[in-house]
Amino acid sequence: MPITTADVLAYLQRSADVIQENKVYLTELDSAIGDADHGINMDRGFQSILKKVTAVEGKDAGTILKTAGMALVTSVGGAGGPLYGTAFMQAGTAVGSKYELSAEDILLALEAALKGVMMRGKSHAGQKTMIDAIEPAIKAMREALSDGAGTQQALDQAATAAEQGMKDTIPMLAQRGRASYLGERSIGHQDPGATSSYLLIRTMAEMARLEE
């Protein structure tokens, strides 16, 4: 079953709910190695998305995702806004003017989002960032689809890989962002950006399950 633009809007709504539900948790994670505002900023950003996308209901998936990205860039402070905003805008560019998305389209959108984040943040896997959750999720989804998995199964595997990637940031030394200033004191803490990325990928899988 293809993913419609209504599904994309529903995903953004559910993601906003999930971020709000985890706002305190994300901020607590960020208080250990960052500016103690990741949850607050992400919540503000996703609430802004909900306001902005009402103007593009009925538009193609690319327009909706790019609108969401612009809302994040203009409303979220620190590095989170530009990085997540770039991710959504690049995902929107990847799916273009489509009104229905396949599992392969979702994979392409995630790959484009990751590439945008890597270029914007000048970072790569292993540096204790959101990339450490997104990259393994993409790899798992790609492998699942190549093995003939359906959308829901592929996204479930992506979410599982993202969760492990998130947990794998705990022993890492932070090399990017505010956390990098702490040096070895950043070791032993879960990265908040990887955590919010996992939550967004997990929400994709949960939404796909509801569609089946």
Overall description:
- It contains nine helices and two strands, in the order E-H-H-H-H-H-E-H-H-H-H.
- The chain has a single domain (3-211), classed as Alpha Horseshoe (Serine Threonine Protein Phosphatase 5, Tetratricopeptide repeat), CATH 1.25.40.340.
- The longest helix has 20 residues, at 192-211.
- The protein has 212 residues and is mostly helical.
- Helix content is 69%, strand content 2%.
Describe, in short, the structure shown.
With 212 residues, the chain is mainly alpha-helical.
Rg, Å, rounded: 16 Å
CATH class: Mainly Alpha
User: Any idea of the CATH topology?
Assistant: Serine Threonine Protein Phosphatase 5, Tetratricopeptide repeat
Beta-strand segment tally = 2
Largest sheet: 2 strands, antiparallel
With strands numbered from the N-terminus, the spatial order across the biggest sheet is 1-2
Mean pLDDT: 93
Supply the CATH architecture: Alpha Horseshoe
Q: What is the terminal separation in angstroms?
A: 8 Å
